[in-house]
Structure formats: structure tokens, C-alpha cells
Amino acid sequence: MTTHILLVSAGFFHPPWLGRFWLRQTLQALPDIRVHQVASLEGLLSSSDRDYQAIVLYIHQQKVSHAALEALDHFVSQGGGLLAIHSATASFKNNPGYFEILGGRFTGHGPLGELDIRPAKVADEIFPGIKPFTLPEEPYEHEMNPACEIHFDAPYPQAKSDGRRLPVVWTYRYGQGRVCYCLPGHRSAAMRHPVVREILQRGLTWACGQTVAWVSAR
């Protein structure tokens, strides 16, 4: 059976055009996936949420209608999946209800630098076998719902000695729906990184409520 995904993404620099292209390639590499793309959340208003198993947000936008946010809330709370990437948490800053859906709100970031990303859980049912990796990325900081489950984190580049760590990948239940957030995505190369690609594929699979047999990333 085909799984239909709605990819909400637009932009040339942020998110980068090539990154958006490679993200779509990554999602379409999953078996029986069909990706439909729109430029903004307003596309939800002309689509039936019954047609999609998940929505993917790779955006950096600030304007959205109340009707579109209501449609997103309804979709996720009633059992739809949501995969949010990078600047999705920095979008729609004047709409607190949006951050309730995602589980986290962007509060700022340090300079672009190497992030030493590692698993945050000893045993992880969604991302087993993925080893630590390093990636040039913006160290996003978030206010988070305590119900979020952190799967990958990294040291704060500007304050490694104080023990604080940045959440890099988290999952969250919103109503009956499943939400996964993945921080990498500032540069287009992040969407080609083999470990990031596998995290995105597993996160989307989980958000859709599906279980697949995967090969652990190297």
C-alpha cells in the first residue's frame, strides 16, 4: 500500500534549494512512499488530511493563516504524523499553538560549527545502531515540552565545559499523533549525510506509525 506524504517546503537559501531537493530524494527512497509537495501550510487547506499519513516541514516562514494552523493541529492530534526539520521550529513565532504541536520552540543559536552528535539513549527502539557522528551545523537552542523524548544530543559549542547538551533529535506525542524533530538542515550537505538521511527516514517511518526492518547506519 502506498504511503502518501505531504512535504511543506519552499525557499532558496534557508532552507537551501539543494537541501530541499535531496530531502525529497531521501524520503522517496523509502519503499512505497509517494511525496506530494506544497510551498506553505496553506496547502493543507486544499488537501484532504485523510490522503496523507504524515506531513514533513522543512521551512523558515513567519506568516500563516489561523485556518492552516487549525488544519495542522487537527491532522496531528487526530493521528497524523509530523516530521519537522531544522528551522521549522523557528517558524511562525507569534503562534504558540504551533509550538505545542512540535514540542519545542526555537530560542536562538550560536555560530555555525562542528556539532559532535551522539545517541542520548542507551537503548533506542526508533534509532538503534546509529553511532556518534560530527556535522557542521547551527547549534539551535529550544524551549521544550518535558514530554519530548530526546534521542540525539550534542554539547553546546560555546560552553562545552558546563555539561549542558543541545537536543538534536526528539520525538513527541501530540494527541493521537506522532511528532519527530531533526535539527540538521542549515546547509544542503546535511541532507546528503548518510546518518542524517537514515535518521530522517526512521523518524518519518515512526511518525507514520509503521515498523520497518532497516540496516544500521555506519
How many beta-strand elements? 11
- What is the CATH architecture descriptor? 3-Layer(aba) Sandwich
- Number of contiguous helices: 4
Looking at how many chains there are and whether they match, the oligomeric state comes to single chain
Strand order of the largest sheet: 2-1-3-4-11-10-9-6-7
Based on secondary structure, the structural category is: alpha/beta
Given this structure, which CATH class is correct? Alpha Beta
Order of helices and strands: EHEEHEHEEEEEEEH
The main β sheet shows up as: 9 strands, mixed
Whole-number mean pLDDT: 90
Q: Going by CATH, what is the homologous superfamily?
A: Class I glutamine amidotransferase (GATase) domain
Give the overall silhouette.
globular
CATH topology tier name:
Rossmann fold
Short description:
With 218 residues, this protein is α/β, with parallel strands linked by helices. It has 4 helices and 11 strands.
